[in-house]
Write a structure and sequence with these properties.
Layout lengths: L1 E6 L9 H8 L5 H9 L3 E3 L2 E2 L12 E6 L16 E4 L3 E6 L16 H9 L23 E7 L2 H13 L3 E9 L6 E5 L2 E3 L7 E3 L8 E10 L6 E8 L6 H8 L14 H10 L4 H9 L5 E9 L6 E5 L4 H10 L3 E2 L5
Parallel strand pairs: 7-14
Antiparallel strand pairs: 1-4, 2-3, 2-4, 5-6, 6-7, 8-13, 8-14, 9-12, 10-11, 12-13, 12-16, 14-15
Amino acid sequence: MNFVTLRVDVENAKSRLDKFLSAGCADLSRSRIQSLIEAGHVRIDGAAVTQASMKLKSGQKITITVPEAVDPDPIAQDIRLNVVYEDDDLLVINKPAGMVVHPGAGNMDGTLVNALLHHCGESLSGIGGVKRPGIVHRLDKETSGLMMVAKNDYAHRFLSEQLADRSLSRTYHALCWGMPEPRVGTVDQPIGRHTQDRQKMSIRRRDGREAVTRYKVLEAFGMPERAASLVECRLETGRTHQIRVHMQSIGHSVVGDTVYGAQPTLRKALLKRGGVEDAAYDAMMSFARQALHAQTIRFVHPETEEDMEFSAPLPDDFAALMEALAPHKVQYNKS
């Protein structure tokens, strides 16, 4: 990381932030400066700002954090992939938790893209950009499950259009704290970047992008109160961290989520009120990632126009967590 510090003088008071920084940072283009502002890398008197047009005041201290330049061309790496389906147009991959989808700061190799470049060679579509070749949609690093990858430009456009018009269906399984009421419902809340922490997303009713998640409780655990529930979530839109943010917004965050998760005191209280003890208690409290799995994906094939559907079982760690909870499963009216 490189750091640049500037002080606003009297002559530059009331200047636009991006114009002032462009004049003071000759080695950074104005578009680069605007992207740094949008990403939260610019602070005024210690507070992050995200408006390039912001008017400055005399005496303000501006700090810019400039990430190190990275190689725009990922390298091919021989990394094992769990390929669920493959033909000349696309692949369906069962991504393990812990694998990053595409290279970025702190994860320049060992990603799904690096593995795909080795697996597919030069056939991989580059329409998503050199750092995201073939990627139609993504999963968070610690989310497991199914992803589609296009192997040519036509397939990429065809599948991306289905993603845009919502004809492509993605269903997830999430283990959540407590149990949502009603047990079948819809969370329709816009999502945008968090105002203070640019690495997080949040509900933004004024300036967020449309985000819709339909959910259904599949199983519940704990008596007399529900300590946790297995929830099916179907995405109508595909915003960053959508399920995690939406479930947090209704008070039922995903188990193991360290960013949007419930506080330790709440987790312990839920487990106690639900009568969850011993192995199940330890498994819930120590689960090392968000318990979120991309279970099923449905789409129309770009060449044959055949309806395609694939499902992936829960990975071992998630399955073991469910097994630990099994003695605390309760029956209820699912209607």
